[in-house]
Amino acid sequence: MDEKQFWNIVEMCNKNEKIYNKLYNTLSQLNNNEIVGFHNIFIKNLSISYKFPVLEACFVIKSYVSDDLFRDFRIWLICQGRKNFFNAIQDPDLISNWPLKREAIDNFNPDDIAGITEEVFLANGGNIDDFDKLVNVVDEPAMNFQWPDSKDAFYEKYPNLVAKFWNQALINEFHPIKSKKSDEEE
User: In this predicted model, what pLDDT tens digit does every residue of 87-96 receive, in sequence order?
Assistant: First the structure.
């Protein structure tokens, strides 16, 4: 499996509302080496997207962050196709140009996608020990960051994302941050 094949499969499947079913059926037609190849490219792209600007975009869109949520967000980005994925990594503010609403992101189930290769590998007669031996383990790179301290600071970096997705009520509920104005009032 090469990058082109990987992205062709992702893009063919992401046009379908039932991406899990389409992806499962597509991967089921591959041999186990190809399935592992798909998995390894998937994991590599998860690592490529492990960048602080992508984490900031996740926060703006989802109104909070956690390790699991960030992983889920990056899976969602991969499922948006090659062009969108790499554009979002280069400039996360471009996500705001996509014709989507927050509900589409909220309703995406990344757990199905994350484990699908192992599931198909086993259904094709492979065993878990063989799968574990064949898959690449990719460590997440170190991430240097300085968290923005206000909506204005996020807006300076991601004006379109903030305009489209910022939800102060949820931020206050899940992951409060002080604004510069409230700092001055104290």
Answer: 999 999 999 9
